[in-house]
Amino acid sequence: MDELHNQRADDTNGINLADEQARNLLERGLALLRPDERLVITLLELEGKSIREVAGMTGWSEANVKVRVFSARQKLRRILERDHGR
Questions:
Q1: For FRET with 31, which of 3, 39, 42, 50 sits at 20 to 30 Å CA-CA?
Q2: Percent of the chain predicted with pLDDT > 70
Q3: CA atoms of 31 and 26, how far apart (whole Å)
């Protein structure tokens, strides 16, 4: 029984470490974005706001929010792929 508990604890620690590493990588990537890129990613992807909500909060049109998030996602993806390869 203790062996099973220890195995689960090891698995959980591995997941926590992977989550922490992913979170650190994401934070580093976000820090390299321009403020408007970071804002749109944070609002849409991390806070779960809708396109309409982000448009209302920022004063940008809904079309502009979509363009900004598309560009920001591409830039963040390139940053993360570059940094993850290190």
A1: 50
A2: 80
A3: 9
